[in-house]
Every structure is written in C-alpha cells, then in structure tokens.
C-alpha cells in the first residue's frame, strides 16, 4: 500500500532518484509489522467471504436464528438477543457477543454460527 502510493507520487512527478528508492526500501523494512497486519486483514476478509452464512443471509434469517440461539448457546440470554435486535449490524453484534461470552476468536464465532445454521437448515428441509 505504501509502495503503491510512493510509486504513484513518483509517476506524478515524473522522476525517481536512487535516494528516493533507498528511502522507499528503508521505510519498507521499518513497516514490516504494518504489512503483516494488512496481509492478515485481507486474509480475514477473504475467509469471511467464504463462510456459509454472511451478513445479508443472517439479517434475512435473524428471527429463526434468534429462536434457536438460547438452545445453541446456553449463555445467550434474552437481554443479549434484544441488544442484537437493536443493532444495525446484527451479525457483527451477535459474533461479538459470542466472542465475549465463550472466548471464541472472531473467525471461530462466525464458523460456529454458520455450522449450526447449516445443521438447522438441513434438519428442517429434510436434506442430510
């Protein structure tokens, strides 16, 4: 990201000196942790796209999921579900609550919701 910006600036100026190249290389060495964070962020978003239950599907199925939630997760109380009802991003709020109550990672919480929803759907549609 930093390299793309610097290359853009160099292209706009029409010049790229050896000193500028050296500064670019030095800045990249210093910013390795930031690059790792960016890679993780992009990897997470790619993983999130692959989950079976995404935000839009969750919003559509929220009432059904809500009715099953206390059976799936015993620590989820009615007042927790009311908080999710009021949230704009219900899926994110629900996942955050699972993280807090069960100590799941974000991806683990998303996977659990998707897995349980898939099982519920297969039981109710008669598919196995």
CATH class of the largest domain: Mainly Alpha
> Helical amount among residues, as a percent range?
over 70%
Average pLDDT across residues?
Answer: 75
Largest sheet: none
Report low-confidence residues grouped into runs of 5 or more. Answer: 47-51
Q: How many individual domains?
A: 2
Number of E strands: 0
CATH topology of the largest domain: Protein Yjbj, Chain: A
Query: Helix and strand string, N-terminal first?
Result: HHHHHHH
Using only CA atoms, what is the Rg?
Answer: 22 Å
CATH superfamily of the largest domain: YjbJ
Q: How many helices?
A: 7
What percentage of the residues does DSSP assign to strands (E)?
A: under 5%
Under the CATH scheme, which architecture of the largest domain would be assigned?
Orthogonal Bundle
Terminal Cα span: 46 Å
Shape: elongated
**How does the helix and strand content classify structurally?**
mainly alpha
């Amino acid at each position: 990201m930093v390299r793309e910006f610097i290359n853009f600036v160099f292209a706009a100026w029409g010049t790229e000196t050896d000193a500028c190249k050296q500064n670019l290389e030095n800045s990249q060495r210093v910013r390795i942790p930031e690059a790792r964070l960016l890679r993780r962020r992009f990897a997470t978003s790619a993983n999130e796209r692959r989950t079976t239950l995404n935000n839009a599907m969750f919003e559509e199925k929220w009432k059904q999921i809500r009715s099953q939630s206390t059976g799936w997760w015993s620590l989820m109380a009615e007042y927790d579900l009311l908080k999710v009802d009021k949230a704009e991003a219900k899926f994110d709020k629900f996942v955050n609550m699972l993280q807090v109550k069960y100590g799941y990672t974000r991806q683990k919480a998303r996977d659990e919701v998707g897995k349980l929803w898939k099982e519920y759907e297969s039981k109710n549609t008669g598919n196995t």
